[in-house]
UniProtKB/TrEMBL annotation:
<keyword id="KW-0597">Phosphoprotein</keyword>
<dbReference type="InterPro" id="IPR005467">
    <property type="entry name" value="His_kinase_dom"/>
</dbReference>
<dbReference type="Pfam" id="PF00989">
    <property type="entry name" value="PAS"/>
</dbReference>
<keyword id="KW-0902">Two-component regulatory system</keyword>
<keyword id="KW-0808">Transferase</keyword>
<dbReference type="InterPro" id="IPR000014">
    <property type="entry name" value="PAS"/>
</dbReference>
<dbReference type="InterPro" id="IPR036097">
    <property type="entry name" value="HisK_dim/P_sf"/>
</dbReference>
<dbReference type="Pfam" id="PF00512">
    <property type="entry name" value="HisKA"/>
</dbReference>
<dbReference type="InterPro" id="IPR035965">
    <property type="entry name" value="PAS-like_dom_sf"/>
</dbReference>
<dbReference type="InterPro" id="IPR004358">
    <property type="entry name" value="Sig_transdc_His_kin-like_C"/>
</dbReference>
<feature type="region of interest" description="Disordered">
    <location>
        <begin position="1"/>
        <end position="26"/>
    </location>
</feature>
<feature type="domain" description="Histidine kinase">
    <location>
        <begin position="144"/>
        <end position="361"/>
    </location>
</feature>
<dbReference type="GO" id="GO:0016301">
    <property type="term" value="F:kinase activity"/>
</dbReference>
<dbReference type="InterPro" id="IPR003594">
    <property type="entry name" value="HATPase_dom"/>
</dbReference>
<dbReference type="InterPro" id="IPR013767">
    <property type="entry name" value="PAS_fold"/>
</dbReference>
<protein>
    <recommendedName>
        <fullName>histidine kinase</fullName>
        <ecNumber>2.7.13.3</ecNumber>
    </recommendedName>
</protein>
<dbReference type="InterPro" id="IPR050736">
    <property type="entry name" value="Sensor_HK_Regulatory"/>
</dbReference>
Amino acid sequence: MSSPGPAHTAAARVDGPGIDPDDLPDGLVVADENGRVVCFNAAAARITATPRSQALGRPLAVALPLEDLKGKRWWALTDPYGGLATRGGQPERNLLLPGGREVLVSARYVREHPTGPVRRVVVSLRGTEARRRTERSHAELIATVAHELRSPLTSVKGFTATLLAKWERFTDDQKRLMLETVDADAGRVTRLIAELLDISRIDSGRLELRRQPVDIAAAVARHIQALMAAGQSPDRFRVRARGPLPDLWADPDKIDQVLGNLLENAVRHGEGTVTIDIAPAPAPGCDETGTAVTVSDEGPGIPEESMGRVFTRFWRGSKRGGTGLGLYIVKGIVEAHGGTITVDRGPGGGAEFRFILPVSAPAYLG
């Protein structure tokens, strides 16, 4: 580490293969053996709102005046230069900058030998905005789950308690109605739990895909048959398949989940004819041909200002029920397959969802 010089020069000199501290995404502050700041990168200046020129050459406690959450001066508590010689640094923790702004701070004490004097103190700074967003998202998820579970579980508990207490007073038709209600609400709870498991796997990158050949046209036909069996008119659907389609290797259960969600949304929230187009298309990020599936309806569509939020957690359009997790899961499944999904306004004025899946054939078939 060189001695402090011109502001940018001092900030840019860090041991390593030509690494410029200003290229680092996190704030970097380095103090020399005398406790004076010799490196203060651009991210540190942004996070602390302190110009680099005001930090370089000053004592670490002055250039970076940190307090713990109880208002105690942090450098006086930790004493990196005069504390125990066996310490190697400080783990990441929340500290306060002047004005009460929180920042995540971790530090490393560099010594020439394990119990020798500190030659450098290297401090990493990170804003708390991303963590706060994650915490808010988790809080929203918990609140939504609690709300969605309360209603069906209250119903299940109420009907089962009533049947157990007054079984002989009800007719067979009344018992059947209560049990059907309990069954439907139990199914609702099961679906919510399955959604939560999917979200957990998507967020952690652990969504497992069991790829095998998938006939996408046949899968669409199965879903339409199920919707017609549930009371939808055959005239409600129009399927247009343009071939020949490339062989598609994907997880059939996950693709069924995507198709089921998009078709159910189109039927429940759209109007008029639901059109499903299946056609070959350039696969995202490669030169091979993939398969594109477009589901569109003739309803009111999605407002322009909401287009960017459709695939986020808890998004619900006007008059839309459910947990608001379905399209978030759909996007996660499509992207786990290496595909893309978009939403736009359809030719009939309604919503148009389009996803493209690459062939993704196993390497041994290449």
